[in-house]
Write a structure and sequence with these properties.
globular; 13 helices; aldehyde dehydrogenase (NAD+) activity; Hopanoid-associated sugar epimerase; 7-stranded parallel β-sheet; 3-stranded mixed β-sheet; alpha/beta; Rossmann fold; 338 residues; single chain; NAD(P)-dependent_oxidoreduct
Length: 338
């Protein structure tokens, strides 16, 4: 029997994306053989060549079922790019994953979002808070989670982790962090989407991926539907991320501009992305802070890279030149509530 056949197999849907790529790396580091689905594997970056790539489409059930054969878990990290056709594509892709997981007797790992929550549960929603979203995207995500609960009730284990806005670890260039600085040019200005004095929640993708991997290690001790909140970095006044970027840049007076929210309603009728941005504007105007008590009760701590290390790495990944510093370090002890 080959080494590959002795390894547990993880099917990662969305392995070329931010969260999918980060989770694939975390599982690979734990000894998993990573299998991934892509419509055209021949065009992929050579750095991903050590994964087993299967040609296929997440919208085709037979492709997903074929890729999932022999897999212990499926990470569902695939979404329509740019929020295009969410209402038409999200649920069919999820149904394909559920069908494949049932056929392979595999568990599902799923990244939840904050869009599920409305203002009625602010500022401290917990894992069991009512989900009354204000947006179309939020309504879709509520339907997604309801379907995952049904799948868990029918016997397919689901591990769901909800987190704030992604940064670092391969997060998309059009992420909110990517909007704060310009890639591949000298760092001369920060554009801050936050409202001064209003908190905002961020998730460093390598830490979130490590959290998924650690929960997966304990899958046998978890309920069929295991849902957790990832605290990550909570910017309590909307300025701490800005100050971290300033510290990394070496310029404590680096210019800060407000995000041009005034332009978003003007562009929304013509651009799908701007329409979606407008819908989640409330998450930048009102504080929401997900605590991680339930997660810490299971893991003992939440993986957390020191903020400046995480920000430095995130900046370097998008091509921003910053002063040299020590390599990233992972915090392994108990989580601070400071």
């Amino acid at each position: 029997m080959s080494d590959m056949n002795r390894q547990p197999v993880a099917l990662v849907l969305g392995a070329t994306g931010g969260v999918g790529g980060a989770v694939a790396r975390a599982l690979n580091d734990r000894g998993y053989h990573i299998r991934a689905l892509n419509r055209d594997p021949s065009r992929l970056d050579g750095r991903l060549a050590h994964y087993e790539w299967i040609k296929g489409d997440a919208m085709r059930r037979e492709d997903v079922e074929n890729a999932a054969r022999g897999a212990e878990l499926i990470f569902h990290g695939v979404n329509p790019p740019g929020y295009k056709d969410w209402d038409r594509l999200v649920m069919p892709m999820l149904e394909n994953t559920i069908a494949a997981a049932r056929l392979a007797n595999a568990r599902i790992l799923f990244p939840g979002t904050i869009y599920n929550f409305g203002r009625d549960v602010f500022p401290y929603p917990n894992e069991e808070s009512p989900q009354n979203p204000h947006t179309r995207k939020g309504l879709i995500r509520v339907a997604v989670e309801e379907r995952l609960r049904e799948a868990a009730f029918d016997g397919t284990q689901v591990i769901l982790v909800r987190a704030g806005d992604f940064f670092g670890g391969g997060a998309a260039a059009n992420s909110w962090f990517g909007q704060m600085v310009k890639a591949h040019v000298p760092l001369t200005r920060i554009t801050n989407p936050a409202t001064p004095g209003v908190g905002h929640q961020w998730a460093y993708l390598p830490d979130l991926a490590e959290t998924f991997a650690a929960l997966n290690d304990r899958a046998g001790q978890l309920p069929k539907f295991a849902n957790y909140h990832f605290e990550g970095f909570y910017d309590a006044d909307g300025m701490q991320m800005v100050e971290a970027i300033r510290r990394i840049s070496g310029d404590p007076k680096l210019k800060v501009s407000r995000f041009p929210w005034f332009a978003v309603p003007l562009l929304a009728p013509f651009m799908t992305l701007m329409r979606e941005v407008l819908e989640v504007r409330y998450l930048w105007k009102e504080a929401m802070h997900m605590k991680n008590d339930k997660l810490v009760a299971v893991l003992g701590h939440e993986p957390r890279t020191p903020l400046d290390t995480a920000v430095r790495t995130a900046l370097e990944e998008i091509g921003v030149t910053v002063p040299r510093a020590a390599a990233p370090a992972m915090l392994k002890g108990p989580v601070s509530r400071a």
